[in-house]
Design brief:
31% of the residues lie in helices and 30% in strands. The protein is an alpha+beta fold and 81 residues long. Strands 2-3-1-4 form a four-stranded antiparallel beta sheet, with helices on one face.
Length: 81
């Protein structure tokens, strides 16, 4: 199976940290998801930053629907691959 990288977009750092922690526990991830601050184009105010939770899925086994639901619980979404 091909390596898959899931990117969940969250509205703030707190939500991203919660999602990363919950995903690690819920899916038994071998490594912690990576948090990345994503400033919106043209914006330099920290309040206008989104946070990305990047989850490596080398076996391609994580269910996208469950990841999408997890992000939605925190007012976020799963980026299409």
């Amino acid at each position: 199976m091909n390596d898959v990288r899931h990117v969940l977009v969250l509205p703030d750092r707190d939500a991203a940290e919660e999602v990363a922690e919950e995903a690690a526990g819920r899916f038994g991830l071998p490594e912690e998801p990576q948090l990345v601050r994503d400033a919106l184009a043209g914006e330099d105010d920290a309040e206008d930053a989104q946070w990305l939770v990047v989850i490596e899925d080398p076996a391609g086994r994580l269910p996208a629907a469950e990841l999408e639901a997890l992000a939605a619980e925190h007012e976020g979404w799963l980026e299409a691959p």
